[in-house]
Specification:
Number of strands: 13
InterPro entries: CRISPR-assoc_prot_CT1975 (IPR010148)
Helix content: 25-40%
Strand content: 15-25%
Radius of gyration: 26 Å
Organism: Bifidobacterium pseudolongum subsp. globosum
Oligomer: single chain
Order of helices and strands: EEEHEHHEEEHHHHEEEHEHHHEHEH
Protein name: Type I-E CRISPR-associated protein Cas7/Cse4/CasC
Distance between the termini: 11 Å
Shape: flat
Low-confidence stretches: none
Amino acid sequence: MSTRTIVEMHALETTAAANLNRDDTGSPKTMEYGGVTRARVSSQAWKRPIRQMFNDLLNPQELGIRSKKVVEILSKRIVALDDSLADEAPDLAEAMLSKGAGIKLAAPRKRKGAEDQEDKRLNQSQYLLFLGNRQYDALARLAVDVRKESSDLKEAQTAIGKMKKQIKQIIKDDKAIDIALFGRMVADDTDLNIDAASQFANAFSVQAVDTESDFFTAVDDVHNAGDTDDENGGDSGAAMLGEIEFNAATYYRFADVDANRLYDTLGDVEATAKAVGALVKAFVMSMPQGKSSTFAQGTLPDLVVVNIRDTQAVNMSGAFLTPVKPNYVANATKALVRRSKDMDDVYGVTPVKTWVVRIGDATKDADALAEAVSLRELVDGVEEVVSSRLSQE
């Protein structure tokens, strides 16, 4: 029996007016598919709110920080361990990252108006570096220990430069859950890379979508009061004019995670099962926050289907190559169920286990895949099956 464990997540989610993910002109992203224009949300746009939701679902010590401000972050960890090193902490942090880990650092771009004043911001990595909280703590502890054993800062920096193997090993041993799931690329040293255990598809609308435009005005409350001392008093015209583009759609969303590869990185069955469970929940509950104060797009999926396969992940986007017709959720559900059954019958990729979470009569056809359960039952069930299967490896 194969113990390969691939967890698939499929969702149909309907949003009303929204601009979830903008292009460089501010318009909602789109794509051509099946001969028509579809609304689109990039995988990056949806992965970020998922990672942010992990802060509520998991212990922060089990997570990482993705930032260029690596010297600043490590400096603060050093000071937290020994506040007498406040003045030397930036230099120690820079030595750990640059001389020790081989990460190239550079001065940040100068801010506007800083030409005539000293820019005291610390050096930064030249790309976003994803590093676990436990790794920052371990590097800070090492920096403090080295400084205590050295007569001065220069001697400590020299000592750190001779500890490259140990420092790189600390970074390579990263067990942060979000880094294991989403991966890490270190351009300066590929040995520090971590392959992502998860994959995310671009979400797209199951129907053809036209981008619409909202013309708006803003009125000056004081000016509009009609102050007669104001040369424009009483003028009810707008103080600001603007335009926001938006669309409305039912999206098909897909992601998967290779639990075996995740286990290879995390090295613990229960931690892996918990990570998969958190990913499933965050996938369901998250929402990109583009223009959220304007559109309040806090929806939840109409339908969620989660499969565990022992073969390979199967994206069901082909179910919507022909744009579905109104009623969109009902017709999209039928198309997804039909595609799923065809894939299983023809290619022999029948899931080991399937869960369905759904609302409303429009999604009732999904009962043909599995009995509907609650989100909590889904997460608990996924964690249990993943744990059981990994324990058999």
